[in-house]
Amino acid sequence: MRRRERVYLTPVPVRIWHWLNVLCILALCITGAEIRFPATVRVLGSYNAAVRLHNDVGVVFICSYALWFVYYAFIARNLIRLYVPTADDIRKGMLQQILYYCYQYFKGEPNPFQVSPNHKFNALQKTAYAAIMLVFTPLVTLTGVLLLDVVPLRTMVLALGGMRFLIEVHWLLACVFCAFLFTHVYLATLGHTPFAYFRPMLNGWEDVNDD
Known about the structure:
The protein has about 210 residues and is mostly helical. It has helices spanning about 10-35, 45-75, 80-85, 85-100, 125-145, 155-160, 160-185, 200-205, and strands at about 5-10, 205-210. The mean pLDDT is about 90.
């Protein structure tokens, strides 16, 4: 039987950011759906209220992202190591994890990736997080800011195709975030217990195999 040891994996600033980000994405998805489908989705009961809350939460989301980027890039200085896939990740790590998630996990076999404070994410996680945090988040932020209809930015809006084009791009990016949220929650249940991967985001500690 495998023994497990506890590793302090997630410091307090990261945990605070994570849960703040979760609340922001949930609020943005709900209010965004109400703005997109006002006749069908009636959570706040008012289109104008949904727009105001969406914009306010969007500002918090942008500030949260800025704090995340500053922390990993300039304080922890491990943004590239943690989030950007290496050549080895692309060459064999991704295939290993796909095989594990689609087949080996259901046979009860151990995860080929062993987490550590300096290597928190497997190849698939790195790829997904790099896409979300370094590509899709800046894009959804940019389109969201432009859609605020700030007068000095109208020239840029027209240069990028106008409001209608930006609305559609912003909506598609929001769908990506919504899909990521559901996938992220599902994969978080694939530990040695269904809540094993949730604990590091609550108390910072994760149980790992001693080998």
